[in-house]
Design goal:
globular; single chain; mainly beta
Length: 233
């Protein structure tokens, strides 16, 4: 993990995350601070309240910084928002978080079908810019397995859509879910498997800002074998 601890957060007015902007850093920061350009990005990782909240933080030197040239990734699939969600650890800034210079209003999500088959299902959300400035907003779609018989994250991101809207304008984000999006990889079966049962679709602005949930049903277990030549022996 590579998070940044911010014990000084309460002493500053704002935090601007610029990543790797290159030689145009000065111009880019000036454009954002003076309002010529909206800061429309969203965090692609989770920032913890404390470094000890990170999934790779353990007392085992094999996890970090490594021992005798070896490192063990004991966190498995529980990294980032999957770790924080499933372990009920509140982050400082959640995955997908970001602020801009305007405000948005979302409609209730619309689901094409409450059952899913080979054609998949789609979800639509209307987004309206209710502020006085142009800006961007992002709609995330997570999948949550209900009553899973195996250990799975609380929810998993499967689709997202971004809209840039002028003041007062409305747009629609349409996101699709297919059978593969419900699946996990079964090592013994050497296949992706989506067990029959109920699944919850979670519409969110970021990992903690959930705007709506819907349930879909899969009547029969779906399986997609992986080609033998793609498997590592």
């Amino acid at each position: 993990g590579g998070p940044i601890a911010m014990p000084w957060l309460g002493d500053v007015a704002a935090v601007l995350q610029m990543w790797y902007p290159g030689q145009e850093l000065g111009n880019a920061v000036a454009d954002v601070l003076f309002g010529d350009v909206e800061p429309g990005g969203r965090l692609p990782q989770t920032f913890p309240k404390s470094l000890s909240d990170n999934s790779s933080f353990t007392n085992d030197p094999l996890t970090y910084p490594g021992k005798d040239g070896h490192v063990v990734y004991s966190e498995g699939i529980y990294v980032g928002y999957r770790h924080h969600d499933t372990r009920a650890i509140t982050p400082l800034f959640p995955f997908g978080y970001g602020l801009g210079y305007t405000s948005f209003e979302w409609s209730a999500p619309r689901l094409s079908s409450t059952t899913i088959g080979e054609a998949g299902v789609s979800v639509e959300v209307d987004v309206t810019n209710t502020g006085a400035r142009a800006g961007s907003d992002v709609v995330q779609l997570y999948v949550r397995s209900i009553d899973s018989k195996i250990d799975r994250p609380d929810k998993e991101l499967r689709a997202f859509g971004k809209l840039r809207l002028a003041p007062g304008k409305r747009g629609t984000v349409s996101l699709g879910i297919r059978l593969r999006d419900l699946a996990y990889f079964d090592v013994e079966a050497k296949a992706f498997v989506a067990p029959a049962g109920d699944y919850e679709l979670v519409i969110a602005a970021h990992a903690l800002d959930i705007r709506g949930t819907m349930r879909i049903a899969l009547s029969e277990t779906w399986l997609e074998p992986v080609r033998p030549d793609l498997l590592r022996t």
